[in-house]
Each structure stands twice: as structure tokens, then as C-alpha cells.
Amino acid sequence: MTEQTAPKSPVTTEQFTNEIKEQLKYAQGITVEQATDADIYVAASLAVRRHLVDSWATTQKDMVNGSTKAVGYLSAEFLMGKQLRNALLNLGMLAEFDDAVKALGHDPQLVVDSEYEPGLGNGGLGRLAACFIDSLASLGVPAFGYGIQYKYGIFKQEFDAEGKQVERPDYWLANEEPWGHIDYNRSQKVNFGGQVVEEDGKKVWKPAWSVRAVPVDYMVPGYKSGRVNTLRLWSAKSYDEFDLLTFNKSEYLDAVKPQVEAENISKILYPEDSTPQGKRLRLEQQYFFVAASIHDAIRVFYPGQDKPDLTTFPNKITFQLNDTHPVIGIPELMRVLIDEYGYDWDTAWDITTKTFNYTCHTLLPEALEVWPARLIGELLPRHLEIINEINDHFLEELKGLTRDKERINRMRIVTEGDDPQVRMAYLATAGGSHVNGVAELHSQLLKDVTLRDFSDLFPKKFTNVTNGVTPRRFIRLANPRLSNLITEGLGTDKWLSDLDLLQGLVPLADDPEFVKKFAEVKHANKVAFANFAKDRYGFEANPDTMFNTMVKRLHEYKRQSLKILALIARYAAIKNGTINVDDVLPRTVFFGAKAAPGYYMAKLTIQLINNVARVVNNDPDVKGKLAVHFPANYNVRLAQHLIPATELDEQISQAGKEASGTGNMKFALNGALTVGTLDGANVEIREKVGADNFFLFGMTVDEVEDLYEKGYDPAKYYEADPRLKMAIDMISNGAFSDGDRNTYAPLVADWLTKDYFMTLADFTSYADIQYEIEDLYRDQDAWNRKAILNVANTGYFSSDRSIEDYLERIWHTGPLA
């Protein structure tokens, strides 16, 4: 008998049906008969929102009045995904929703599909932030997620006739959006530009222009906790009045220029920054949301107080800097404390360093933000003064810790020279209590390489918190078939809030009946994805082939190029008879990725993948044996359909380059086997699931570094492996560009002369392990037993566990009483 511990619905089906009718009538002004699926979605969402409001208000009240320190999660991205079903799950209303919608004459799935997914993130960074605020609420920890309400998100990806990525505006707010509550009465003023003057012996910032930061609040319900936290996203508005006189002179653009410039700040995520204007807008965005958030937190925790005692601020809230984007918050809090509240430097610095903590998400130098001091001075002149003073104080502190002048110079927050630069990762490390990496390997490399000087002198600051994902969205909602099977196997659904209970599945991997049911679940998921893909994207996917997936942001270090080269090599081997087509294991390969608009090599790789797919999928010689699909605009919705259907997951980044990954966790939890390098969280996943249940290939971090030092010649590998040579030659000869040898010449030239991420060096190892993978896949019972062991042994990778680690190691707080 299964023990059910899911939340109990606050309403019956009849009551919820009436609530939807009420919203249709009084909030939307339409009858049930007139209502479309989209109308029902809005009405149901508004009804669900009403069920959250009381808990939301209670949580805020208890947070302000209690002694529990809150968490402020500052992040440029929050990739939330669709919200209705997540809220229904956490309220225990999934069944009531389905039944109520059916009673109103609508299909629940079509109603859910009416919700437009907000594109407020680029990938893992934003999805991690979303998982974390879900877990904070589920654990009952008071928290604010602070970010930006981007009007157009990142971008909507399309492919043109040549397979090239085309970026379109993502009009996610084009229709009624029932979840965000705009609160104009709690807006904040954010200043820019101007100059700093001295008045009565004090520094005074005289800004040139200001922007109104208007909060848009989203409720974040916890699973079974009874707590509802807040995601507060800031939207930029102008303070300037509309210039009617100018408008009436038909000078329309001049009349609206102030509004346009202000609102540009919250238009899109990550504006293309290869131009000075783009860099300026990015810095404006970063300061805009952290300045508004810091002032908001003071308002929240010291209501009605003109001059509160901010020495208690670190006891009220701890701010987590999610990568370097919010680091300008450190000099901002210093400015607020010194200029607005009159604290001396030492007191302000003590408050600031106790308030902030920094998560570093990268090992790549180019991803550690560095801002020209000149630009900061133009936009934030007082902040540049404070940053320079922080730098001076820090250098004096270092002189007391080491006599190594070269080390001290390496650790400068502000570089020397004619064009000084502000190193934001260094500012975050100096100005916060803790620095953490996001996987054991990443954290070690952070200490040993990226921030070695800092970790040598401040070892107690550094710790690790391995990333995690929420099982509520990525198993229960994304994979209800597997969720039900897990609950059946364990005899309880408690695993949804205690993922370690998945260990109870280990003996079931040897139970033939359970293995059979698991195989049926996976095949049903493949059929469901094939139907979804045909309906949504128009392509046919054969569920009787292996589903092999690589989905992640398109970057050279993630090595989508390695996957496509190996795929071309397999295609070539079938075509030239090296492999008997009758011996080929049927495989369908899925890619999903967006490239930054200004990232030429990444966009060229996307074009190549799409054109390989065009050639392969239209070749009768490989029909039924090999297919390649690249559905556009990869997002949370697509992930929730594709991940449960995947059997082989690709995590093939160069060792030492991926911080952690969370896709690898989602796939393993959903019963996919991983082929990967010893990089990021792959290392820990392999340890947890067992080396026999993970397909390992490629160089280690030490081997990579050794090859860099010795001198890497990629052409040597091209000549050494005929499969690799054939693949690159096919690309070079125009096999995937209608005979045009120039289309992919930049890719080929890079592979053969630079290949910084050593795709060619790892090719042979990667291509060889495919034989081991296919041999195992032919024994479906053996494959599925290993897949079950992946599910059973990856409970560690819950975002609930990640948050518990943050609470213990960094934030030193806990749930509300």
C-alpha cells in the first residue's frame, strides 16, 4: 500500500470550478461559454493565486517580525518555466484542476499549454536560481529572489533556410500575465551619471538622470511547507513626463526619448555587448536591479524607520551574488551606508562584508566580468571612488599578510595603467564572507587556479556547494509516469521532499518486473515526445531508436562540435561501407542550444548541425538508422518533454571547463545514462551512480593542462584517426553546404590550427566509447538496470540538499518557526 503525503487540496473540484467561473465573470468579464483555453488558463491562475495570498502575507509578516535571517538571491536570470502546474502541485490541486477544467468543457493540457513561458534566463544559471528559490520556499526559509522583469527575455530562436540562428523578440508579455503583481507604490529610484561634489566635508553624488524601478512580484510557493516566498523582478520606467509640446510639433522620437532610454534597461536579457553602447547598457542593468533590491530590503526589514540601525542588517538578510552580475551591489551598499546613513568606513565595510556572499559559476577568464573603470566612472562616479578606496584598503590588508609584491599586484581589484579595469570577481571575493564553487572539482580548481592567490591568503572564505535541481518540476511534473513508478516502488511519495529516499530503488534494479515497468515508462515517454515533436516542430522521431540528447548553451568548451563530428564520422562510415548498415544500432540524436547573438563560431556550429541534419535525414541510405533533429528555441517546456524521453545524455565538455552543470543531474534523475568527461558535476555523478553505470571518456584536467604546456597540435589528431579526418574533410569539401567549401572554413581552420578546447584530442576516445554504449544498449535489460541505478543514486543532486548546504556553510540561517 502506497503512503500518500502530498499536500491536501484546499478545495474540492466543485469549489475550484466555481472559483474559475467567478474569475471569468468578475476579473475577465466573459462567460463560460465564451471562454477560450487561454481565458480558462488566466482564470484558473488567478484562482490559484488567491489560494497563495494568505500564506504569502503570513510568510512576509513572520520574516520581518521573527528572528530568522532571510536570503536575498541576487541574479540576472530566473528561468522559471511555466508556473500554473508547479503552483497546483505545491498546493495539492493537480487533480482538482484537471477535473474542474474538464467540467467546464476544456482539455486541461490545452489550457496549460496556453501559458507562455517567460524567457528570463539563458540556461543553467537562471534555471539554478529558479530551482533554488523553489527549494528555499519548500524548506520554509524566508527569501527574496531579486532580478529584472525583462520585457522580451533573452530572444526567441528561429532557424532560416540556411540553418542559421535568427534571433527574434520574445513577446512573452504580449498576452495577459496573471502571475506577476505590479506594485507602483513600492518603486525605487535608481540614479546614474553626474558628478561627485563635496559639501560640508562629505561626498555627495549629484546624478544626471534617474530611473524608476517598479517591482513585479511573483509568489513562490513551497512544496508542503505552507510558506510562499517572493520573486521580485524590477521593471524600468522613466520619471520624465511625456513631452506633449514636442510631440505636437510632430517630433515624435524626441518626445518619447527619455521613456525609451529608461525602459531599455529592462528590455532584454544580456544585450549584445561588443559595442560601447552594449557594455554601457549591461552595466546599467546590473546596477539598476541591485540598487533597487538593496533599498527594497532596507524598506522591508525596517518599515517606517527613517534612520534604522543598519548594523543589524546582516542579521536580517544575507545576499547571495549569483555570479559576477550583481557584484556592483557591494560598493552600492557601502555608498548607502556611508552617504545616506552616515556610517564611518570601517563600520560600513564590516556590515557589507557580513552581508554578501559570492557564487562563482565559471573557470573561464573571459566569463569573470571586468569593467573599464572609465565606464563605471561615467555611469556611477561615486561608486568608482568607493571601489578605488576598497582597492586601497585591500592592498594595505594584503601587505600585512604577505611580502610577495607580485602576488599583491595580481590581487588588485582595480588594475594599474592608462586604462584601469575593475575585476568584479576579485571585488566579490574581497567584499563578501564566503566564495563557493558549484561542484567539488570546480571548487577545487577555483581555489587552485582561478582564485588561487585569494584562497591561499583567505582559505576560510572558500567552500563548495554542489548544484542541484528540484525534483518537483523535473520529475513529478516533467515525468509523471516515472514519478508514479517511483512512488509505487518505494511505497511512498515522501521522496519528492527527501530525494535520498530514491536509494530504496537500488534492490529494484534486480527485480525483473520493476525493470520491465521502467522500460515501459521510458518507451511511453519516447512515444509522447515523438507526438509532441511532430505537433510542435513538425518532425518525425522514431521511438524505437535510441534517443540520444545534447542540450545546453552553445559554447565551444561544451563541445557540441565533438558530438557533430562523431555523428558525421558514423554517417560517413555507413555511406562508404566501413560499417555494414544492417549492423548499425538505430539512433536519433537531438540537439538543443542557443548561441549568444555576437558569438560567431557558436552560430556557425548551429548552422553546421542543422545542415548535417538536413543531409542525414534526407538520405535513404541511413533511413531508420540515423536521424538528427535540432528543435529551435530550447526552453524549460521543451526540456520537460525531452529529458524524460532521453536514454543517452551527452556531457562532453573539456575537462576543467564546466563549472557544474545541472542538465546532467536532470537526465540521470530521469533514467538516462551519461557519456561524459571528468568535468563539473560529472565527477560526483559518476561517484554516486557507480563507474560501471557511466560512460567515461577523454582526458582528465591534469592531462589537459599537461598537453597545453607541452604544446597542442590539433592537426596531429586529424591525421591519426581516419574517422576524424573523413568527418572534417566532408565538412571542408562542402558535403553539408551544397558544395560550398567556404561556408564552414572558419570552423575547419580553427579545429586544425587552434582547437583551444581540444575537441580533436578527445575525438578518438569519444568515438571508441560509442561501441561500448551500443553493445550495452542492445541488451535492454542490462541497460535499464543501469538506468534505474542512475535514478536511485542521484538523490544527492536535489536543490533541497544544495540549499541545506548553503544554510549550513554560508548563510547560517534556517526555516521560519
Automatic annotation (TrEMBL):
This enzyme's EC code(s): 2.4.1.1
InterPro entries in alphabetical order: Glycg_phsphrylas, Glyco_trans_35, Pyridoxal_P_attach_site
Protein family (similarity comment): Belongs to the glycogen phosphorylase family.
Record protein name field: Alpha-1,4 glucan phosphorylase
Keywords recorded for this protein, A-Z: Carbohydrate metabolism, Glycosyltransferase, Pyridoxal phosphate, Transferase
Family annotation (Gene3D superfamilies): Glycogen Phosphorylase B
Class of this enzyme: transferase
Transferase in keyword set: yes
Function: Phosphorylase is an important allosteric enzyme in carbohydrate metabolism. Enzymes from different sources differ in their regulatory mechanisms and in their natural substrates. However, all known phosphorylases share catalytic and structural properties. Allosteric enzyme that catalyzes the rate-limiting step in glycogen catabolism, the phosphorolytic cleavage of glycogen to produce glucose-1-phosphate, and plays a central role in maintaining cellular and organismal glucose homeostasis.
Annotated catalysed reactions: [(1->4)-alpha-D-glucosyl](n) + phosphate = [(1->4)-alpha-D-glucosyl](n-1) + alpha-D-glucose 1-phosphate
Statement: the UniProt record of this protein carries the keyword Calcium: no
PROSITE patterns named among the record's database cross-references: PHOSPHORYLASE
